[in-house]
Amino acid sequence: MARFFTTAEDLQKKTDEYFAYCDAYIGEKIIQGKKMKVKAPRPYTVEGLTAFLGFKNRKSLHDYGKQQQYEKFHDIIATAKAKIAANLVERALLNEYSTGMAIFILANNFDYHQPAPSPKAVENEGEAIDKIATALMKLNDRLSREKKKQSKLNA
Questions:
Q1: Domain extents for the chain?
Q2: By the 8 A CB rule, do 29 and 40 touch?
Q3: pLDDT on residue 155
Q4: Is the Cβ–Cβ distance between 6 and 13 less than 8 Å?
Q5: Separation of alpha carbons 14 and 47, rounded Å
Q6: Alpha-carbon gap, residue 74 to 80, rounded angstroms
Q7: Does residue 44 contact residue 87 with C-beta atoms inside 8 Å?
Q8: Mean pLDDT across 82-110
Q9: Any long-range contacts for 20-29 (C-beta under 8 Å, 24+ apart)?
Q10: Under a CB-based contact definition with an 8 Å cutoff, are residues 38 and 28 in contact?
Q11: CB environment 30-62: b (16+ within 10 A), e (fewer)
Q12: CA–CA distance, 50 with 58 (Å, rounded to integer)
């Protein structure tokens, strides 16, 4: 690890600085043909937090959040990651991020995974499809009979 925090307070302070840095970011945009400086909050990311805290990689940040010897830092890392995940989901819901990118990031950084359907759900789905197919065939037969009746009446 490139950086070693000795107290939880030091880590909390640096983590808070990361979020403040992201929130206060000033970017450049071209508005009506002119380059303008505008407040453009940077997205919160695990990678951004990792770099800002001085770690070499995400694994080092993960270790601070999970390994026993860093127990005093666990809540700080967990809270920061929850804030990052919430920001990601909110931005995706506002169409600031693509849904695919949000799913990718959540799956790779936060262990979010869509559960596999249970065998019972798959069985129920199959039964539902069979019922729908049967109902559609009955409806098709009924429509055919009514069409024949209509043809006989028009003849």
A1: 8-110, 117-155
A2: yes
A3: 66
A4: no
A5: 15
A6: 10
A7: yes
A8: 85
A9: 21/52, 22/48
A10: yes
A11: eeeeeeeeeeeeeebbbebbbbbbebeeeebbb
A12: 6
Q: How many CB atoms lie within 10 A of CB 76?
A: 22
Confidence band, pLDDT 50/70/90 cuts, at residue 53: very high
Q: Which residues contact 55 (CB under 8 A, 6 or more apart)?
A: 1, 2, 3, 61, 64
Q: How confident is the model at residue 2 (pLDDT cuts 50, 70, 90)?
A: very low
Q: Which top CATH class is 8-110?
A: mainly alpha
65 and 111 Cβ atoms separated by less than 8 Å: no
Buried b / exposed e along 91-106 (16+ C-beta atoms within 10 A): bbeeeebeeeebbebb
**Which pTM was predicted?**
0.65
Mean residue pLDDT across the chain = 83
HSE-up (13 A, CA, CB side) for residue 25: 13
The size of the chain, in residues, is: 155
